[in-house]
Write a structure and sequence with these properties.
Blueprint (H helix, E strand, L loop, with lengths): L2 E6 L5 H18 L15 E7 L2 E9 L8 E8 L8 H17 L3 E7 L3 H6 L2 E10 L2 E9 L1
Parallel strand pairs: 4-5
Antiparallel strand pairs: 1-2, 2-3, 3-4, 5-7, 6-7
């Protein structure tokens, strides 16, 4: 079972920050073989939605209020540890992130920049594609919008 907490940057312990950055690097840089600047100066503005299993961070997203990343509120850096994906924690962390956007920002429109191979995953969460596919850090992406 995943325990999910939402924290501001200031509320993160140094250990949590280290562990979530390590998870992001493990997946986005090493597993996906993509050299890019993950530490982008935006974590300080974001709320961090963290999924814990046995006190270890195994799932994570960061969320932004409207205007801080896109015109709409947004969810990004969606990640689940490779050895935990069989449990479908991606759905748990995304559902918690959608709720966090609604609760913290009082909005129901969310924009994401999704890796194209994950379109069906996001479709199941009620996101729909907008615009054309584009390359971001050498990986095909597409904009997607959630409205409720």
């Amino acid at each position: 079972m995943l325990e999910i907490k939402t924290k501001t940057f200031q509320e993160l312990t140094t250990t949590e920050l280290y562990n979530l950055l390590q998870l992001r690097s493990e997946v986005f840089v090493v597993e996906q073989d993509c050299v890019y600047q993950d530490i982008d100066g935006k974590d300080q503005k974001a709320l961090h939605v963290i999924g814990y299993k046995n006190n270890n961070i195994v799932a994570y997203t960061r969320i932004f209020k409207p205007g801080d990343y896109f015109k709409e509120s947004s969810i990004g850096r969606v990640v689940v540890a490779e050895n935990e994906r069989e449990y479908k924690y991606g759905y748990n962390i995304m559902e918690a992130s959608i709720e966090a956007v609604k609760n913290h920002y009082n909005v129901s429109e969310i924009k994401i920049s999704a890796q194209c191979y994950l379109k069906r995953f996001y479709n199941k969460l009620k996101f729909t594609e907008v615009g054309e596919e584009y390359l971001e850090d050498g990986i095909p992406h597409i904009g997607m919008i959630y409205k409720n």
